[in-house]
User: Which sequence fits this backbone?
């Protein structure tokens, strides 16, 4: 009994038990206190802060892109509109790994390297939680594949967007231009706030020149999303302001007639309306489909365009610079009359060539054997006598040729409302010294007097030159877009001050080009029911030695002369001025003049004088 008591101590066990229970209870109470304190801190003290963060995760501000302004011709035919398309975008914050997501999408629908590269460039300039476009214009099959696998693609979004579309395709490609994805270079230049949610920008043509007006103003909306990023509802919205619509002077019917008249030839047609200053047609052939560029052109298609020997992307009407040839003779004839170098009675004998004093070189007339005796200004323009203008041009000197050429737009951009216009060249002694570092020679003046040598002009400049001849010196910049208080100001007109008698002399001669039996265009332009004034031109592409003759049969197509023709009608009260260039077309009379005639015929049939007044009033 005593031994059992020695082995067991109830009091000690009780004290040990109570101590352990007390320690455990204290720990529990302390931990419970921490939990209560933490709960109080989260639910009461920091409630507002966490509620705001929760709302920020659930509610987001999203940009709403505006509808781009529409472009139509003078009769309301749509040339650029917006069509719905589906865009694949990625919100990087929701992906959990953007490279893994891109790899999965690539395995499903196949991504191009260019698409991935553009995506990363845009992502570098994005706003937080902003959807970055990866591919535009998803096909129905691609949409279906992505929808089925949506649970494997966190951060992916498929949204409906308006995509630019050009219904008339190649006919208006160079004038209207096209839009395309904003490049990294453009991102550095644009105002970020104006392009939130907008992924395309005008690249060429009117789309580029009137980007500010066509763009519109971005709208915004507050959206509520679930844990997967899906939009549940729109809480608040500020609607975007659509871009302004553009109405053009251009008539698509004349544009298509001009393109069809050029056929398979490379060249340009420009038609200006003298009463309004508007561009009726601005055709460059061959052309291309601008729709290819809107959602991203493939490398194969782009390489085919830029490496084509026909250069379809090159706007010949606006940027092509060609020797104007004899089309400048009416201007230099006016210069000679106005300067007093000649009068209407002045004439020369044309043996088929011209020689400077103490110079053995012969500057040949295009007509072998010459035009004979008593060639005055009228005959020189009607028959396009080079020898007459060699003589007159040399007497005038290059400075006066430069001055009068400049009055009619040579050597200067026209100020048309399109980007990328070339200025051409109306040379002078100072120009040659600066551009080439050599002096001006008398022979340079002789060549310039017939629109050869260093003289270069665009088809647009030649059309404007024709319009200034038609209006007897009205100076204005051609316009593609009709005047609007919000977009374009009215056309400002000035006047070239020359004697009315001199204008009449040159006008009579230009009528003779078409209607005189000796006129260079009389055989090509026949049976007119109105009076046309015009001037043919032929511009050499390759030089010909003194003792050689031009033989087209020995030359390749690209070595043949360029064919040109300028005209205006009706001559009594001109309403349309036209310039035509056919690359390697050889003869302005037989190749270019019939093209101009088709455009002028169509215009006069479509727009009798009473309709012109209505168009001007509506503009």
Assistant:
């Amino acid at each position: 009994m005593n031994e059992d008591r020695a082995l067991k101590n109830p009091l000690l066990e009780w004290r040990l038990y109570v101590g352990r229970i007390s320690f455990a209870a204290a720990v529990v109470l302390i931990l419970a206190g921490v939990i209560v304190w933490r709960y109080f801190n989260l639910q009461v003290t920091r409630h507002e802060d966490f509620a705001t963060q929760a709302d920020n995760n659930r509610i987001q501000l999203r940009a709403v892109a505006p509808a781009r302004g529409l472009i139509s011709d003078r009769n309301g035919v749509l040339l650029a509109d917006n069509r719905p398309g589906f865009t694949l975008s990625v919100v990087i914050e929701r992906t959990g790994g953007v490279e893994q997501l891109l790899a999965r999408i690539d395995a499903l629908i196949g991504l191009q390297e260019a698409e991935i590269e553009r995506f990363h460039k845009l992502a570098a300039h994005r706003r937080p939680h902003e959807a970055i476009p990866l591919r535009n214009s998803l096909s129905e099959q691609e949409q279906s594949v992505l929808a089925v696998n949506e649970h494997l693609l966190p951060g992916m979004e498929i949204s409906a967007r308006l995509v630019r579309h050009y219904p008339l395709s190649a006919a208006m490609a160079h004038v209207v231009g096209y839009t395309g994805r904003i490049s990294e270079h453009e991102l550095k230049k644009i105002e970020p706030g104006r392009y939130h949610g907008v992924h395309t920008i005008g690249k060429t043509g009117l789309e580029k020149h009137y980007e500010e007006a066509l763009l519109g103003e971005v709208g915004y909306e507050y959206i509520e999303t679930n844990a997967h990023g899906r939009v549940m509802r729109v809480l608040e919205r500020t609607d975007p302001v659509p871009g302004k619509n553009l109405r053009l002077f251009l008539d698509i019917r004349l544009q298509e007639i001009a393109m069809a008249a050029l056929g398979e030839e490379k060249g340009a047609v420009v038609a200006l309306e003298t009463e309004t200053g508007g561009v009726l047609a601005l055709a460059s052939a061959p052309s291309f489909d601008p729709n290819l560029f809107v959602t991203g052109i493939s490398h194969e298609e782009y390489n085919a365009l830029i490496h084509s020997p026909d250069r379809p992307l090159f706007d010949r009407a606006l940027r092509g610079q060609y020797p104007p040839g004899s089309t400048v003779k009416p201007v230099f004839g006016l210069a000679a009359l106005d300067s007093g170098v000649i009068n209407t009675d002045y004439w020369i004998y044309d043996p088929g060539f011209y020689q400077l004093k103490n110079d053995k070189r012969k500057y040949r007339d295009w007509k072998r054997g010459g035009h004979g005796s008593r060639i005055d200004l009228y005959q020189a323009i009607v028959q396009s006598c080079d020898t007459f203008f060699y003589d007159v041009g040399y007497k005038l000197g290059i400075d006066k040729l430069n001055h009068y050429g400049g009055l009619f737009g040579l050597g200067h951009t026209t100020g048309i409302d399109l980007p990328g216009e070339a200025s051409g060249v109306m040379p002078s002694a100072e120009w040659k010294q600066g551009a080439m570092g050599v002096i001006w020679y008398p022979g340079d003046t002789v060549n310039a007097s017939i629109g050869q040598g260093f003289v270069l002009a665009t088809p647009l400049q030649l059309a404007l030159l024709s319009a200034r001849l038609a209006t007897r010196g009205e100076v204005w910049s051609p316009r593609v877009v009709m005047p609007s208080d919000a977009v374009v100001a009215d056309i400002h007109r000035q006047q070239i001050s020359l004697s009315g008698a001199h204008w009449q002399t040159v006008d009579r001669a230009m009528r003779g080009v078409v209607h005189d039996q000796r006129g260079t265009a009389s055989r090509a332009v026949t049976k007119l029911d109105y009076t046309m004034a015009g001037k043919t031109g032929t511009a050499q592409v390759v030089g010909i030695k003194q003792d050689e003759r031009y033989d087209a049969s020995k030359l390749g197509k690209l070595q043949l002369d360029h064919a040109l023709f300028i005209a205006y009608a009706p001559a009594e009260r001109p309403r349309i001025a036209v310039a035509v260039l056919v690359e390697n077309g050889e003869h302005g009379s037989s190749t270019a003049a019939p093209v101009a005639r088709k455009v002028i015929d169509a215009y006069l049939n479509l727009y009798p004088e009473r309709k012109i007044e209505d168009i001007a009033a509506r503009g």
Q: What stands out?
A: The domain at 252-305+318-618 is CATH 3.40.710.10 (Beta-lactamase). The longest strand covers residues 78-90. The chain has two domains: 66-247, 252-305+318-618. The mean pLDDT is 88.
